Amino acid sequence: MFERLKSLWVIGTTVGALAFLVPSLAIAQSDPLPSWNDTAPKAAIVEFVDKVSKEGSPDFVPEPERIAVFDNDGTLWIEQPMYVQLAFALDRVKAEAPSHPEWATTQPFQAVLEGDMKALTAAGEKGLLELIMATHAGMTTAQFEKIASEWIATARDPRFKKPYTELVYQPMLELLAYLRANGFKTFIVSGGGIEFMRPWTEKVYGVPPEQVVGSSIKTKFAMKDGAPTLFRLPEVNFIDDKAGKPVGIQEHIGRRPIAAFGNSDGDLEMLQWTTLAEGPRFGLIVHHTDAEREYAYDRKSEFGHLDLALDAAAINKWTVVDMKADWKQIFPGN
């Protein structure tokens, strides 16, 4: 159920310095992907990039058409034990609870305050949508950006005890830099909230806010005390997940990507839209197989559910990354 609701969470630094250093480091080294083992996925990436970026190659793709799209949760950073933006929503309920004494006896807020995940799950989509609207709407875009930015700077992952922005995947940071060094434009296309991601993606991934595609709630322009403002309304605007991802790509980017990177069934349609067309195409799935360094999960996981897309990878000849076997390291600095 949680996989279906991934996009609802969105409705609504050390790592930064490292991310900006990655491009120059990658170019300076003979190996542009040093955190990748010399296995088939790395070879497939290098082969694809070489053939589409080398002038004179029969598969050469002009630079403006070299578009690569990346899912975020589980593809660029951690998504267990729950999506990061869901953790943000739950923390916001706890922070706002003193102003809402009625939440102590009202579901699904009571479940959040009591840490009752069973009751929270039982609340279903309707209940979780209530949480999202209570924590992501009813404020200006500037207010929401401030709240989200402060949270992402201070929140810590429960297992690794680190900021979430330090739990990004070093091999994927290198891949982003490698693609950009070879004329690609890199976009994030996530079920996560577009306004939740935009304040920090440039610092962490080198992806500016205008190259972030995500889910959104409706926003209204208004003059307030003589100043122009954008106000976040408690209404769904767009869900950028599953079949919504190709739509979001078309509406925000306007070009069909030639490379797509994901990790779950929520990315299936994006991979299909990118790869099932003429010309050189590349699709990659990050398969979480390393329980010791990160997590191992796929077909039975509520978060990052990977089932249909894993089967489709074999049929469509997408590259599947086995994190345990194909990555020398998972996070920066470890």
From TrEMBL:
On the tree of life, the source organism's domain of life is Bacteria
Pfam families of this UniProt entry?
A: HAD (PF12710)
InterPro entries assigned: HAD-like_SerB, HAD-like_sf, HAD_sf
* Listed name of the protein: Nonspecific acid phosphatase
Q: Which organism is it from?
A: Mesorhizobium prunaredense
Q: What is the lineage of its organism?
A: Bacteria, Pseudomonadati, Pseudomonadota, Alphaproteobacteria, Hyphomicrobiales
